[in-house]
Design brief:
It is built from 15 helices and 13 strands. The protein has 408 residues and is of the alpha+beta class. It has 2 domains: 198 residues, no CATH class; 192 residues, no CATH class. It has a 6-stranded mixed beta barrel, surrounded by 4 helices. The chain has a two-stranded antiparallel sheet with strand order 2-11. The longest helix has 39 residues. The protein is elongated and about 105 Å long. The protein starts with a helix and ends with a helix.
């Protein structure tokens, strides 16, 4: 009664001769192995791309952002700052004023750009933009009665600007007043002090100025557009978001780094689990082979099954014999497939075997192995293999001993 495992092994891995059944079993194991390995490699690569994209986005996006829920600006007061700083995980607050403005280069060329006014001291610690300065310095202070402006290198080349050039900014609200009130627009002049080259995925600010100058430009007086927050660990953002939201109330919206680029992150997650679903088809094909091979074993071992039943083996024990065969096939395929997938992923991570073209931001396919993904893949493959043995096991348990012996 206690030898179901040994009987299952003998039926599955008989060494007497190579038959169609053993061939199908071997093909099933190979199918599960290849499918499992491919799933681990593909999901690890997709995780790597997600990590790369997140890294580039976090070069510009804060961990958390606080904005007004009913208007585009709000007043920054000490009470609000104290409420935010009550969370010990917060290391830095950086207020900003943001809006669109028309940049004109002495009448040579005009372009509408996104302008962000920042507090220099907190901002350079928020995204470490000083490391991305490609020309000049990050200086938006007032010198010789002229405020400074730091612009993206791409926009600087597009407008044919040089360090020290003077440009003018005109806010969108000022342009509207010009059209409705027929008054001359007020231009705010800035001196180009630096250019930055910050790898961004998606649109962001193309020019930085001092926050006080931005308040004058956008006529926001002492108001700000939002407060960017840096945490001790970016992964805490999703956990701390509801906590901070409850502290600030309904007058403010708290967004995490995920919320700021939610559409992009959601698409990447959809691609990942879509790839998982598609590649599981390989394992499903292998599972169909398992159904076929186990069904043929049931037919071939019909007399043996009848003898086992006459010896006192219950229907549950007979089912267990064939379910264990599915379990053994799944275990072998998952073990070899898991090891192969992890080995290939590690080789790509360590030696960058498969390269990307120079047009990409990275030189090789990125890899990030996540334990949870590996566990999900292995469990999914194993459960499919066990499920494949259900029908043959049920058929085997329904065999009548007298008919089985007479059949022989």
């Amino acid at each position: 009664m206690h030898y179901t495992g040994q009987i299952a092994q003998r039926y599955l891995f008989s060494k007497k001769h190579i038959s169609l059944i053993s061939t199908l079993t071997f093909i099933s194991i190979i199918g599960v192995t290849i499918g499992t390995a491919l799933l681990i490699v593909v999901l690890s690569v997709l995780n790597g791309f997600f990590d790369v994209v997140q890294g580039y986005l976090l070069n510009y996006d804060p961990d958390l952002r606080v904005e007004a829920s009913g208007s585009s600006t709000f007043v920054q007061n000490q009470e609000l700052v104290d409420q935010i700083n009550s969370l010990p995980e917060i290391t830095l607050l950086s207020p900003y004023v943001e809006g669109k403005a028309l940049l004109t280069n002495n009448g040579k060329e005009n372009k509408v750009i996104e302008v962000r006014g920042v507090d220099t001291e907190s901002f350079i610690n928020l995204i470490e933009i000083q490391q991305s300065i490609s020309a000049g310095v990050f200086d938006v202070s007032v010198r010789n009665r002229k405020p400074g402006l730091v612009i993206s290198e791409q926009l600087m080349n597009e407008l044919d600007l040089d360090l020290g050039d003077e440009v003018a900014l005109l806010s969108a609200s000022a342009m509207r007043r010009t059209l409705t009130q027929i008054t001359a627009p007020r231009l705010y002049r800035f001196e180009v002090r630096g250019a930055y080259e910050l790898e961004q995925i998606g649109e962001g600010a193309q020019a930085f100025i001092d926050i006080t100058a931005a308040q004058r430009l956008f006529k926001s007086r002492n108001n700000i557009s939002g407060i960017d927050i840096k945490l001790i660990d970016s992964e805490l953002a999703l956990q701390l978001k509801p906590v901070l939201q409850s502290k600030l109330g309904d007058n403010f919206n708290v967004s995490s780094w995920y919320d700021l680029q939610k559409a992009l992150y959601d698409v990447m997650y959809l691609e990942k689990w879509g790839a998982y679903a598609i590649l599981m088809i390989i394992i499903i094909v292998a599972v169909l082979n398992i159904v076929g091979s186990l069904t043929m074993i049931v037919i071939q071992k019909r007399r043996d099954i009848g003898i086992l039943i006459t010896m006192g083996y219950s229907k549950a024990a007979i089912k267990q014999i064939f379910r264990k065969q599915g379990l053994y096939i799944g275990l072998i395929g998952c073990i070899f497939g898991g090891l192969l997938g992890l080995l290939l992923s590690w080789l790509q991570l360590k030696f960058h075997i498969i390269k990307l073209s120079t047009a990409f931001l990275i030189d090789a396919y990125p890899v990030q192995i996540q334990v949870t993904d590996v566990v999900i893949i292995l469990l999914g493959s194993l459960l499919l293999c066990i499920a494949a043995s259900w029908l043959p096991a049920t058929r085997a348990s329904e065999i009548q001993p007298a008919d089985a012996i007479r059949y022989e």
